[in-house]
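Handoff note, outgoing to incoming analyst
You'll be picking up this chain. Sequence as last confirmed:
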Amino acid sequence: MKGFATGVAFAGTAALIWGGQFVVGKSALSRVDAYPLTTIRYALAASVLLLVLVAMEGPRALRLEGRGLRLFALGSLGFAGFNLLAFTGLDHARPESAALIVALAPLVTALVLWARAGVRPPRVSAIAMAVALVGVALVISHGDPASIAAGSVGWGDALVLAGVTCFVFYTLGAASHSDLSPLRYTALTASLGWLSIAGATAVAVAAGLVPLPSLADVGAVTPELLYLALPGAVVAVVCWNAAVPRIGAQNVALIGNLVPVTTFAIQIVRGYRPGPLELVGAALTLGALAANNVLLRRRAARRPAEVERPVERVELEAA
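Most recent structure output, in case you need it:
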Protein backbone atom coordinates (compact mmCIF):
# COMPACT_ATOMS: atom_id res chain seq x y z
CA MET A 1 0.00 0.00 0.00
CA LYS A 2 2.93 2.33 0.71
CA GLY A 3 4.28 1.76 -2.81
CA PHE A 4 0.82 2.27 -4.29
CA ALA A 5 0.36 5.55 -2.41
CA THR A 6 3.77 6.73 -3.60
CA GLY A 7 2.84 5.85 -7.19
CA VAL A 8 -0.43 7.79 -6.92
CA ALA A 9 1.49 10.77 -5.54
CA PHE A 10 3.98 10.62 -8.42
CA ALA A 11 1.26 10.37 -11.09
CA GLY A 12 -0.82 13.09 -9.44
CA THR A 13 2.20 15.41 -9.29
CA ALA A 14 2.89 14.92 -13.00
CA ALA A 15 -0.76 15.52 -13.92
CA LEU A 16 -0.95 18.72 -11.86
CA ILE A 17 2.27 20.06 -13.40
CA TRP A 18 1.10 19.29 -16.94
CA GLY A 19 -2.29 20.84 -16.25
CA GLY A 20 -0.59 24.11 -15.34
CA GLN A 21 1.72 23.82 -18.33
CA PHE A 22 -0.99 24.82 -20.81
CA VAL A 23 -1.78 28.03 -18.95
CA VAL A 24 1.90 28.90 -18.47
CA GLY A 25 2.69 28.04 -22.09
CA LYS A 26 -0.15 30.22 -23.37
CA SER A 27 1.29 33.12 -21.39
CA ALA A 28 4.82 32.59 -22.75
CA LEU A 29 3.55 32.43 -26.34
CA SER A 30 2.38 36.03 -26.06
CA ARG A 31 6.05 37.12 -26.26
CA VAL A 32 7.97 34.22 -27.85
CA ASP A 33 6.88 32.06 -30.79
CA ALA A 34 6.36 28.32 -30.23
CA TYR A 35 9.47 27.32 -32.22
CA PRO A 36 12.16 29.32 -30.37
CA LEU A 37 10.26 28.77 -27.11
CA THR A 38 10.45 24.99 -27.56
CA THR A 39 14.10 25.17 -28.66
CA ILE A 40 15.16 27.05 -25.52
CA ARG A 41 12.93 24.92 -23.29
CA TYR A 42 14.37 21.59 -24.44
CA ALA A 43 17.95 22.83 -24.59
CA LEU A 44 17.61 23.26 -20.82
CA ALA A 45 15.44 20.19 -20.18
CA ALA A 46 17.58 17.80 -22.25
CA SER A 47 20.76 19.04 -20.53
CA VAL A 48 19.26 18.40 -17.11
CA LEU A 49 17.97 14.96 -18.14
CA LEU A 50 21.40 13.95 -19.45
CA LEU A 51 23.09 15.11 -16.25
CA VAL A 52 20.59 13.14 -14.16
CA LEU A 53 21.09 10.10 -16.38
CA VAL A 54 24.87 10.19 -15.96
CA ALA A 55 24.50 10.65 -12.20
CA MET A 56 22.05 7.76 -11.88
CA GLU A 57 23.34 5.24 -14.44
CA GLY A 58 26.89 6.37 -15.28
CA PRO A 59 28.47 7.69 -18.52
CA ARG A 60 27.92 4.35 -20.29
CA ALA A 61 24.19 5.12 -20.36
CA LEU A 62 24.90 7.82 -22.96
CA ARG A 63 25.88 5.19 -25.53
CA LEU A 64 23.38 4.71 -28.36
CA GLU A 65 24.49 1.11 -29.04
CA GLY A 66 23.66 1.14 -32.73
CA ARG A 67 20.10 2.45 -32.37
CA GLY A 68 20.79 6.16 -32.72
CA LEU A 69 18.74 6.57 -35.92
CA ARG A 70 15.64 4.97 -34.43
CA LEU A 71 15.94 6.90 -31.17
CA PHE A 72 16.41 10.09 -33.21
CA ALA A 73 13.22 9.34 -35.17
CA LEU A 74 11.27 8.62 -32.00
CA GLY A 75 12.65 11.71 -30.27
CA SER A 76 11.70 13.81 -33.29
CA LEU A 77 8.13 12.48 -33.06
CA GLY A 78 7.75 12.69 -29.30
CA PHE A 79 9.49 15.97 -28.59
CA ALA A 80 9.77 17.92 -31.86
CA GLY A 81 6.48 16.68 -33.30
CA PHE A 82 4.40 16.96 -30.15
CA ASN A 83 5.79 20.21 -28.78
CA LEU A 84 6.10 22.18 -32.02
CA LEU A 85 2.62 21.16 -33.16
CA ALA A 86 0.91 21.37 -29.77
CA PHE A 87 2.44 24.70 -28.77
CA THR A 88 1.85 26.23 -32.20
CA GLY A 89 -1.73 25.04 -31.85
CA LEU A 90 -1.94 26.37 -28.28
CA ASP A 91 -1.05 29.81 -29.63
CA HIS A 92 -4.35 29.68 -31.56
CA ALA A 93 -6.50 27.72 -29.10
CA ARG A 94 -7.67 28.01 -25.50
CA PRO A 95 -5.62 26.22 -22.80
CA GLU A 96 -8.66 24.26 -21.57
CA SER A 97 -9.47 23.04 -25.09
CA ALA A 98 -5.85 21.98 -25.69
CA ALA A 99 -5.69 20.12 -22.36
CA LEU A 100 -8.89 18.22 -23.13
CA ILE A 101 -7.58 17.22 -26.58
CA VAL A 102 -4.35 15.94 -25.01
CA ALA A 103 -6.45 13.83 -22.63
CA LEU A 104 -7.74 11.93 -25.69
CA ALA A 105 -4.34 10.21 -26.07
CA PRO A 106 -5.58 6.75 -24.89
CA LEU A 107 -8.32 6.79 -27.51
CA VAL A 108 -5.91 7.99 -30.21
CA THR A 109 -3.66 5.10 -29.19
CA ALA A 110 -6.50 2.65 -29.81
CA LEU A 111 -6.98 4.05 -33.32
CA VAL A 112 -3.26 3.93 -34.08
CA LEU A 113 -3.05 0.29 -32.97
CA TRP A 114 -6.07 -0.52 -35.12
CA ALA A 115 -4.49 1.08 -38.19
CA ARG A 116 -0.96 -0.21 -37.58
CA ALA A 117 -1.46 -3.66 -36.08
CA GLY A 118 -5.05 -4.52 -36.94
CA VAL A 119 -6.12 -4.52 -33.29
CA ARG A 120 -9.74 -3.44 -33.47
CA PRO A 121 -10.79 -1.33 -30.47
CA PRO A 122 -13.32 -3.05 -28.21
CA ARG A 123 -16.90 -1.84 -28.51
CA VAL A 124 -16.61 -0.02 -25.20
CA SER A 125 -13.67 2.01 -26.57
CA ALA A 126 -15.61 2.90 -29.71
CA ILE A 127 -18.52 4.16 -27.60
CA ALA A 128 -16.17 6.04 -25.27
CA MET A 129 -14.49 7.61 -28.31
CA ALA A 130 -17.80 8.89 -29.67
CA VAL A 131 -18.89 10.30 -26.29
CA ALA A 132 -15.49 11.92 -25.66
CA LEU A 133 -15.52 13.60 -29.07
CA VAL A 134 -18.98 15.01 -28.39
CA GLY A 135 -17.67 16.41 -25.10
CA VAL A 136 -14.59 17.95 -26.76
CA ALA A 137 -16.84 19.51 -29.43
CA LEU A 138 -18.95 21.14 -26.72
CA VAL A 139 -15.87 22.62 -25.03
CA ILE A 140 -14.17 23.84 -28.21
CA SER A 141 -17.40 25.40 -29.53
CA HIS A 142 -18.08 27.18 -26.21
CA GLY A 143 -21.18 25.05 -25.72
CA ASP A 144 -22.60 25.76 -29.20
CA PRO A 145 -22.05 22.65 -31.37
CA ALA A 146 -23.89 24.24 -34.30
CA SER A 147 -21.08 26.80 -34.56
CA ILE A 148 -18.65 24.05 -35.57
CA ALA A 149 -20.12 24.13 -39.07
CA ALA A 150 -19.30 27.83 -39.18
CA GLY A 151 -15.65 27.16 -38.33
CA SER A 152 -15.50 27.49 -34.55
CA VAL A 153 -13.06 24.55 -34.46
CA GLY A 154 -9.83 26.28 -35.44
CA TRP A 155 -6.69 24.88 -36.95
CA GLY A 156 -5.00 25.39 -33.60
CA ASP A 157 -7.12 22.58 -32.11
CA ALA A 158 -6.25 20.37 -35.10
CA LEU A 159 -2.53 21.01 -34.57
CA VAL A 160 -2.81 19.99 -30.91
CA LEU A 161 -4.47 16.73 -31.98
CA ALA A 162 -1.70 16.14 -34.54
CA GLY A 163 0.85 16.69 -31.78
CA VAL A 164 -0.93 14.17 -29.56
CA THR A 165 -0.80 11.62 -32.39
CA CYS A 166 2.97 12.14 -32.70
CA PHE A 167 3.39 11.52 -28.98
CA VAL A 168 1.31 8.33 -29.19
CA PHE A 169 3.73 6.94 -31.80
CA TYR A 170 6.63 7.94 -29.54
CA THR A 171 5.05 6.18 -26.55
CA LEU A 172 4.37 3.00 -28.51
CA GLY A 173 7.93 3.08 -29.82
CA ALA A 174 9.19 2.68 -26.26
CA ALA A 175 8.06 -0.96 -26.40
CA SER A 176 10.87 -1.75 -28.85
CA HIS A 177 13.42 -0.35 -26.38
CA SER A 178 12.16 -1.97 -23.21
CA ASP A 179 15.74 -2.80 -22.19
CA LEU A 180 16.36 0.91 -21.61
CA SER A 181 15.27 2.41 -18.32
CA PRO A 182 12.50 5.02 -18.59
CA LEU A 183 15.00 7.72 -17.58
CA ARG A 184 17.52 6.63 -20.22
CA TYR A 185 14.89 6.37 -22.96
CA THR A 186 13.52 9.81 -22.09
CA ALA A 187 16.93 11.50 -21.83
CA LEU A 188 18.31 10.06 -25.07
CA THR A 189 15.19 10.70 -27.14
CA ALA A 190 14.72 14.19 -25.71
CA SER A 191 18.32 15.09 -26.54
CA LEU A 192 18.14 13.68 -30.08
CA GLY A 193 14.70 15.18 -30.58
CA TRP A 194 16.10 18.60 -29.65
CA LEU A 195 18.26 18.43 -32.80
CA SER A 196 15.05 18.30 -34.88
CA ILE A 197 13.51 21.11 -32.82
CA ALA A 198 16.56 23.33 -33.33
CA GLY A 199 16.78 22.47 -37.03
CA ALA A 200 13.09 23.20 -37.66
CA THR A 201 13.42 26.49 -35.77
CA ALA A 202 16.48 27.54 -37.76
CA VAL A 203 14.70 26.84 -41.05
CA ALA A 204 11.53 28.63 -39.95
CA VAL A 205 13.47 31.71 -38.79
CA ALA A 206 15.64 31.81 -41.95
CA ALA A 207 12.51 31.57 -44.13
CA GLY A 208 10.90 34.44 -42.28
CA LEU A 209 8.04 32.26 -41.03
CA VAL A 210 8.93 32.67 -37.36
CA PRO A 211 10.27 35.82 -35.69
CA LEU A 212 13.45 35.50 -33.69
CA PRO A 213 12.75 36.72 -30.14
CA SER A 214 14.81 39.50 -28.63
CA LEU A 215 16.73 39.06 -25.41
CA ALA A 216 14.10 41.26 -23.77
CA ASP A 217 11.34 38.90 -24.94
CA VAL A 218 13.19 35.85 -23.61
CA GLY A 219 13.91 37.63 -20.36
CA ALA A 220 10.26 38.56 -19.97
CA VAL A 221 9.17 34.90 -20.15
CA THR A 222 12.06 33.42 -18.16
CA PRO A 223 9.78 32.29 -15.27
CA GLU A 224 7.48 30.55 -17.76
CA LEU A 225 10.46 28.95 -19.52
CA LEU A 226 11.85 27.64 -16.25
CA TYR A 227 8.47 26.12 -15.37
CA LEU A 228 8.08 24.53 -18.81
CA ALA A 229 11.62 23.16 -18.83
CA LEU A 230 12.15 21.97 -15.24
CA PRO A 231 8.82 20.95 -13.68
CA GLY A 232 7.10 20.45 -17.06
CA ALA A 233 9.76 18.55 -19.02
CA VAL A 234 11.92 17.02 -16.28
CA VAL A 235 10.12 16.59 -12.94
CA ALA A 236 6.77 15.58 -14.44
CA VAL A 237 8.33 13.02 -16.80
CA VAL A 238 10.41 11.45 -14.03
CA CYS A 239 7.35 11.31 -11.74
CA TRP A 240 5.22 9.82 -14.51
CA ASN A 241 7.78 7.13 -15.33
CA ALA A 242 8.27 6.38 -11.62
CA ALA A 243 4.52 5.93 -11.13
CA VAL A 244 4.05 3.29 -13.85
CA PRO A 245 5.95 0.40 -12.16
CA ARG A 246 4.29 1.19 -8.83
CA ILE A 247 0.62 1.41 -9.78
CA GLY A 248 0.47 0.21 -13.41
CA ALA A 249 -0.01 2.03 -16.71
CA GLN A 250 -3.82 1.96 -16.52
CA ASN A 251 -3.96 3.61 -13.10
CA VAL A 252 -1.47 6.23 -14.28
CA ALA A 253 -3.59 6.92 -17.37
CA LEU A 254 -6.67 7.29 -15.19
CA ILE A 255 -4.93 9.82 -12.94
CA GLY A 256 -3.82 11.60 -16.12
CA ASN A 257 -7.39 12.85 -16.46
CA LEU A 258 -6.41 15.40 -13.80
CA VAL A 259 -4.53 17.32 -16.52
CA PRO A 260 -7.58 19.02 -18.10
CA VAL A 261 -9.28 19.29 -14.68
CA THR A 262 -6.26 21.25 -13.42
CA THR A 263 -6.24 23.49 -16.49
CA PHE A 264 -9.94 24.25 -16.12
CA ALA A 265 -9.51 24.97 -12.40
CA ILE A 266 -6.62 27.38 -12.99
CA GLN A 267 -8.54 29.21 -15.72
CA ILE A 268 -11.62 29.53 -13.51
CA VAL A 269 -9.50 30.94 -10.66
CA ARG A 270 -8.05 33.43 -13.15
CA GLY A 271 -11.56 34.64 -14.00
CA TYR A 272 -12.74 32.38 -16.83
CA ARG A 273 -16.41 31.44 -16.56
CA PRO A 274 -17.29 28.40 -18.70
CA GLY A 275 -20.88 28.02 -19.83
CA PRO A 276 -23.03 25.13 -18.55
CA LEU A 277 -22.66 23.16 -21.81
CA GLU A 278 -18.89 23.57 -21.72
CA LEU A 279 -18.83 22.01 -18.27
CA VAL A 280 -21.12 19.24 -19.50
CA GLY A 281 -18.73 18.65 -22.40
CA ALA A 282 -15.70 18.43 -20.12
CA ALA A 283 -17.56 16.02 -17.81
CA LEU A 284 -18.62 13.87 -20.79
CA THR A 285 -15.06 13.62 -22.08
CA LEU A 286 -13.46 12.84 -18.72
CA GLY A 287 -16.28 10.43 -17.80
CA ALA A 288 -15.89 8.57 -21.10
CA LEU A 289 -12.12 8.28 -20.65
CA ALA A 290 -12.47 7.03 -17.07
CA ALA A 291 -15.21 4.54 -18.01
CA ASN A 292 -13.13 3.23 -20.91
CA ASN A 293 -10.17 2.70 -18.58
CA VAL A 294 -12.20 0.89 -15.91
CA LEU A 295 -14.16 -1.30 -18.33
CA LEU A 296 -11.04 -2.33 -20.26
CA ARG A 297 -9.44 -3.23 -16.94
CA ARG A 298 -12.38 -5.53 -16.08
CA ARG A 299 -12.31 -7.02 -19.57
CA ALA A 300 -8.60 -7.81 -19.18
CA ALA A 301 -9.20 -9.39 -15.76
CA ARG A 302 -11.75 -11.78 -17.26
CA ARG A 303 -9.41 -12.80 -20.07
CA PRO A 304 -6.99 -15.65 -19.19
CA ALA A 305 -3.51 -14.18 -19.05
CA GLU A 306 -2.00 -17.06 -21.01
CA VAL A 307 -4.07 -16.37 -24.14
CA GLU A 308 -3.55 -12.62 -24.17
CA ARG A 309 -1.66 -11.57 -27.29
CA PRO A 310 1.33 -9.23 -26.83
CA VAL A 311 -0.15 -6.52 -29.05
CA GLU A 312 -3.32 -6.55 -26.96
CA ARG A 313 -1.20 -6.08 -23.88
CA VAL A 314 0.35 -2.98 -25.43
CA GLU A 315 -3.15 -1.71 -26.23
CA LEU A 316 -4.35 -2.12 -22.66
CA GLU A 317 -1.28 -0.51 -21.16
CA ALA A 318 -1.53 2.45 -23.53
CA ALA A 319 -5.18 2.93 -22.61
